[in-house]
Amino acid sequence: MAIIRYAAKKDVPELVSMVKGLLLMHICRFRSFSRSEMVHNLDEVLGKDYLKVGLPKKNVLVAEAEGEIVGFCEFEVSLSSIVFKKRRYLYLHDLFIKQGYRKRGIGRMLMQRLAEIAKERKCAHSRIELDVDAGNKEALAFYNKFGFKPGKRVRLIRQVK
Fold it and tell me: Which domains are present in the chain?
């Protein structure tokens, strides 16, 4: 059984390792990024970012099982535009479970905790938003189990050089 808790500074090395795994998965499986877009000193950059921002402000949850961190999710609570009367919503940036710990209910536990946080932080209709790579069928199926559906908006991306 896993426990879900907010990340602490001592978790940074393991979080950096898992973020690298997440990025490599997107490069290899979904071609979301190119290898040239990755920073060569990723450990240093990510470690400094987590420490600079401060984990409690960063909103990172970890799943711990058998004495090790086996998954994490990073999120933020934001306000929508004035058009929507500045309603709060929770935006899930990343969710990652180590390969050997998938399909054990750990992702479900993280999603349940996110729903609780959305309620605690008074997000409009306890709304959670996220982006998922269109080719990531496993993630799409996972999020569909929790009632996520494609929205009516299209996300546009432009590389600025």
Answer: 3-144 (3.40.630.30)
pTM over the 0.70 mark? yes
Both tokens of residue 71? 């998954």
Tell me if 78 sits within 8 A of 89, measured CB to CB.
Answer: yes
What pLDDT score does 23 carry? 74
CB 89 within 8 A of CB 130: no
Q: How many residues does the chain have?
A: 161
Residue 20's alpha-carbon distances to 3, 117, 132, in angstroms, are 23, 26, 17
Tell me the pLDDT tens digit for each residue of 81-124.
655 566 788 899 889 999 899 999 999 999 999 999 988 888 87
- Residue 106 burial by Cβ neighbours in a 10 Å radius (0-12, 13-18, 19+): buried
